[in-house]
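Example complex used in Figure S2.
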Amino acid sequence: MYPASAGLRVVSLARTLVAEQIEYRELLVQMVKRDLLIRYKQTVMGFGWAVFMPLVNTVIFSIVFTRVAHVDTGLPYPLYAYCGLLAWNFTASSLRFAVVSLTGNANLVTKIYFPREIFPFSAVLVALVDTAIGSSVLVALMIWYRVDVHWTVLALPVIVLAHVTLTSALALLLAVGHLFYRDVKYVFDIVLNVAMFVTSVVYPVDRIGGPIGRLLALNPVTIIIDAYRDVLLRGTLPPAAPFVAAGCFSAVLLLAAWIVFHRGELTFAENM
Amino acid sequence: MAQPGIRFEGVWKKFRRGERHDSLRDLVPALARRLVGRRTNAPELSEQEFWAVRDVSFEVQRGEALGIIGPNGAGKSTTLKLLNRIIAPSRGRCEIHGRVGALIEVAAGFHPDLTGRENIYLQGAILHMKRGEVARKFDQIVEFAGLSEFIDTPVKRYSSGMNARLGFSIAAHLEPDVLLIDEVLSVGDMGFQQRCVERMLEFKKQGVTILFVSHNLQAVASLCERALYLHRDVRALGPCRDVIEQYVRSAVRTTTVSRRGAVEIVKTELVDHRGCPVSCVTPGTALVLRVTYAAHATANNLLFGFLLYRSTDALSVYDANFGSQELQVGALQAGDEVVVDYHFHVNLTRGQYHLGCHVFDLATQEYTDRVCPIGALTVDESRTHNGIADLQVAPRLIASTGSLAGAAEAAL
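Predicted assembly (684 residues):
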């Protein structure tokens, strides 16, 4: 096969996939609504949980990293930590919902046809709504610490887009992986715990230094989380090269993950 | 000529028997197999697999209704899943044109914690209805389900019948080009079932292409012109009544209890008054079932049974037993042979029926022989009366007022 024709096929497949999502957009909205409504109905705190989790972690890590071991982040530590935790929580809870999103909806997957991507995508969107709610506390903290808002805040949508793209790609892969191999959820839980500490969530990983530090700097989630801090808290744009690289990586990963997911789609019902 | 609504072309589908590997422990052998080139969807069968659907081809024209019948595990639901794009065929092609509605697992998308109202919007979206469309039909849906009182109650408090009614009601308000139906008539009370049948006939009138899977052969016969008898492969495809007849003949197996019992049924013949064999008659015809019995041992207290069933649902229409004395058979000795003629009138409405007969030994309280079916009987008539028994109702006008008064008098 010629590379050019393979490229064309990928493009036309991608177009079909996106068109199908657009056709089923109302279902995606309904699914997101369903998950939010259920949580609101089943829990007393409802959306309060979206704020509560990163807040508790911020308090704990503030004590650890300002009293026990001092880490210089160039920012007020609670601000640094909350911003990192909010962004990290978006990825973590998206993936936590996404990993069981197909297996948890077995009755739908085996009975009714619609694009199965809806399940992991709605997990990501639900987490995005939580993050939007949680960001109100970030705004409060920024006012408290008298952070000047710069024009760089205009770059925020681009960073969110890169972040959602990367998270969606991982969500698709985890959902399909867990469907075929139920061990995936357990492996994922362990990896997620470790991942938080090799990403610049509560401390800057570049402080580790050496070859490990250089390796960790390649983590696209670190690049994205640092980009949030740059445009929101420091009033600078993120370093261009790493950010563009992370963005491109995310886009390619999403395309690849989506194709893998689509290829497996018709075997989901049999492997449930 | 427009393309058909549904086309199945040489479709094969295999399934795995037994457990599927689903932990990382089994990943290595699975990957190794894949590297060697044995894909799970390869056209050949490996030892743990079997064909659930084997070389099935059929078409359903636009606006036509096709019924699929067959025993359990014959691949009927698999066929619907293939059409509904839930699973992919191992070989062959299946196509479906137009907007597809599926009356299958109608309440699958419901979430127990959401109210009926919220679930209608959710299930509507799952069935690919637009939000505006659901909103427009909302009142109709609720009214059809008969649940207006409970529409803001969480579905978890619904009875299973209410659940199914709401699900069916949503699906029934789709505007599909092609409708796939799988055994949904079993839910709900009588009134609701009646409404479901009416709704399906309405769909048919609107020119919707219908594929109807059911064990209720009566329902299939009333909704579909053509039927497909499926048992892994296609056993019969054609006019509904012929296919149903074929299915019934194969499904109702000859049952023989205790071969070489005291008395055996050795021969049966269904003939008309001239002694000619018959299989298709008009209502009211006089027929004779001639049964030859052979005794292998002494027996003197027997019951000779004559039975008639409606084939489409195995309903027992007639079941009579005649004692030895009544038939004046007397005591039988080994080697004796007895021939009995059962005269009867086919007072039945149109449909498919079959006969059976047995011999019951009152001394041992056992059937010495039992044979069913022994003859298929098709009752046909130009006028269509429904039901089973031909009561030979004769209407007569005896009174009338107004301009017709004279006519009534004349008739009297």
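Chain A has one domain: 26-271. DSSP finds twelve helices and no strands in chain A.
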